[in-house]
Amino acid sequence: MDTNAYLERIHYHGTPGVTLNTLAELQVAHMRAVPFENLAIHYQQPISLDNDRLFQKIVRNRRGGFCYELNGLFAHLLQEIGFSVTLLSAEVYQKDDTFGPAFDHLTLLVELDDIFLVDVGFGDSFTQPLRLQQRSPQVQGTTAYQIEQVGDIYIVHQKKLEEPDGGWEPQYRFTQQAWQLADFSPMCHYHQTSPESHFTHKRICSRATAEGRITLSDQRLIVTEGASRMETILPSEAAFLQALQAYFSIQI
């Protein structure tokens, strides 16, 4: 891997060390520079969990991806720097109050003086590492996160602090069982091809900003800054492609 090219892609200009400060800086830089997006699925561009192909797509071609791609390649970057990284299978919380299947999501554990949950591939989620064993809320901006442990299962919960009546909502659950990137290939194929996968239903492209988030959800352009939210309906496919270029520097 060309580590310098990857660091340039995410606009990281420091000297990376195996420290919590570097880990936090890399995570937020990645989430602001590399969008969470499923455009390949909708433009007939097959996704392969091969590190060289992921590097070509995300770094050389300046695209984004979904969890298997983003966290898979980010894990490789962290390992190249010297971090101890474990790939985890996570089950995503569903609207019917259940959790999805195993390998529905790929997330990461990084071991330093403590164990940290790191994730650059879940879209609108935590932008700083979370301490795995901390049970009290961990606040990041206008959102709080809390990790619940039930036996050997960990559940990540999220709460929007600007919504006084809002409660804690689960995001996903996982164990500390270690996996290889290839183990996620069957579910990666499922999410690219199955009509039951939400990724095949609509296009999404989203990245964090210093103030909030910018998201393209089919023809809706959504810009959030703190508690402020502005939504615009794009009138055409041409307008969608123009927004991709303007906000994400992506050309299909």
TrEMBL record:
<dbReference type="InterPro" id="IPR038765">
    <property type="entry name" value="Papain-like_cys_pep_sf"/>
</dbReference>
<comment type="similarity">
    <text>Belongs to the arylamine N-acetyltransferase family.</text>
</comment>
<protein>
    <submittedName>
        <fullName>Arylamine N-acetyltransferase</fullName>
    </submittedName>
</protein>
<dbReference type="InterPro" id="IPR001447">
    <property type="entry name" value="Arylamine_N-AcTrfase"/>
</dbReference>
<keyword id="KW-0808">Transferase</keyword>
<dbReference type="GO" id="GO:0016407">
    <property type="term" value="F:acetyltransferase activity"/>
</dbReference>
<dbReference type="Pfam" id="PF00797">
    <property type="entry name" value="Acetyltransf_2"/>
</dbReference>
